[in-house]
Amino acid sequence: MTWGNGVLYVIVCASGAAGDVGRLVRLARDEGWTVQIVATPPALDFIDVPALERQTGRPVRSRYRRPDEPKPPRADAIIVAPATFNTINKFALGIADTYALGLLAEAPGLGIPVVVLPFVNDALASRAPFRRSVESLRAEGVSILAGQGRSGPPAAHDRAGDPEDRPWARALDALGRLRREAPGEVAGS
Ligand SMILES: Cc1cc2nc3c(=O)[nH]c(=O)nc-3n(C[C@H](O)[C@H](O)[C@H](O)COP(=O)(O)O)c2cc1C
């Protein structure tokens, strides 16, 4: 199904899985999205920046723009993948000390759909702060998928695709569900 054609921000955190985010970029572009990669500062060590820039045709961003730099296009949707323990907890608390977190801090208030694909091990996922973060973000309409390694419904893309694409495809499927449930909804209106 092609219903993209907007600007999708993919926020990449410092997880070992970040090296595979090109799979998500390919799937998203196949759906018609323009993809803007935003990396947390530590995620820059985990990704191939030139390869992602070639794939998206856009610079990878990891810091706030300088005041004299032009404003980048607004996101129509955001996927945080892979999402770390650290970034999920900071997002829930409203901390905006990196560009990635600044975008996330505003997104629910702007009505921008956000899907989070956690890559968090069981020890961290069992912690009370993490469980509280997931609960409070869900209460604000953020879609938090089951962590990797846990069972979930098969993604629509699984039917014909590469099994390695599965987690990334699940994030796009969740975004499609969010948009169908609340098309054009602006939080708080
Ligand atoms: C090789 C390596 C792999 C990591 N993978 C993960 C991971 O999958 N999930 C996670 O929550 N943290 C992981 N970490 C820890 C994060 O990189 C660390 O908490 C970092 O501060 C997260 O920063 P960010 O949330 O700003 O991207 C990993 C660290 C290393 C060195």
Automatic annotation (TrEMBL):
SUPFAM superfamilies: Homo-oligomeric flavin-containing Cys decarboxylases, HFCD. Residues 9-137 form the Flavoprotein domain. It comes from the Bacteria. Residues 156-167 have a biased composition (Basic and acidic residues). Residues 145-167 are annotated as: Disordered. It holds the Pfam family Flavoprotein. InterPro entries: Flavin_trans-like (IPR036551), Flavoprotein (IPR003382). This is Flavoprotein.
